[in-house]
Amino acid sequence: MQDIIVEKQIGGSKMLGVLLIVLGGIAVFAPLFAAFVLMRVIAWLLIFAAVEQVIHAFRSSGEGGLLLKVFLALLYAVAGGMLLTRPVSAAIAATAIIGFLLLADGITEIVLGLQLRRTYARSGWLFAGGVLSLLLGALILYRLPWSAVPVGILVGIRLIFKGVEQIARSSARTSTTEASSVERRAA
After folding, report:
1. Number of folded domains that form the chain
2. What is the spatial distance between Cα 58 and Cα 49, in angstroms, rounded to a whole number?
3. Mean pLDDT over all residues of the chain?
4. DSSP secondary structure code for residue 118 in this structure
5. DSSP characters for 122-179?
6. 31 preceded by cis ω (within 30°)?
């Protein structure tokens, strides 16, 4: 039973890797489209968050802080509206955020890759992905605001690499799972 659950998790993990590769390919071949879609998605998420915040504010009005909660909802709505009406400025701001996110991702994956190098056979992928994230993040931040145009390409490259990394890690778990199930059957 546990083998079936692990197999489903591995299959889902491989599908996530394929999805990341596909999304990365779209971002590489249509970077302006990817940036436009990203800004629209974030804008609508903020607008939906504003609606949810207003509903929450009135439902929990007995707790106090109604004005602050409504003010926060207003900020969400204004931010979402600004992203919808000023997509170029939004793309530049998002580019800066993505640059810092890639730096943080790179540092985290390098540290994790170093920590797992003795226990995990494919930690080199993790380390290499961290180095790639660091380089892409630094490149994006160094070239800001001009890096807003090719950021879709750079993020697409990272998504493709992340997808390959995900598939490689899933494949490693598959071989580990198969080896342990053979050992259990032999015992």
Report:
1. 1
2. 14
3. 82
4. T
5. THHHHHHHHHHHHHHHHHHHHTTTGGGTTHHHHHHHHHHHHHHHHHHHHHHHHHHHHH
6. no
Q: Which of 119, 132, 136 is nearest to 165 (CA)?
A: 132
**Using CA atoms, how far apart are residues 19 and 33, in angstroms rounded to an integer?**
18
**Within a domain: residue 42?**
no
Residue 26 predicted with pLDDT over 80: yes
Instruction: Indicate the pTM of the whole model.
Output: 0.57
Residue 69 lies in a domain: no
Cα dihedral 93, 142, 103, 168 sign = positive
Of 52, 135, 155, 49, nearest in space to 94 by CA? 155
Q: Say whether 43 sits in a helix, a strand or coil.
A: helix
* Residue ranges with strand state E in 44-109: none
pLDDT above 70 (res 108): yes
| Residue 29: other Cβ atoms inside 10 A | 12
Q: Are 165 and 176 in contact (CB under 8 A)?
A: no
The residue segments making up the domain with residue 105 are: 2-34+87-186
Q: Which residue has the tokens 């750079």?
A: 154
Provide the angle, in degrees to the nearest 10, between the axes of the packed helices 66-85 and 31-59.
Answer: 160
The answer to whether residues 80 and 50 touch, using CB atoms and an 8 Å cutoff, is yes
Residue 49 lies in a domain: no
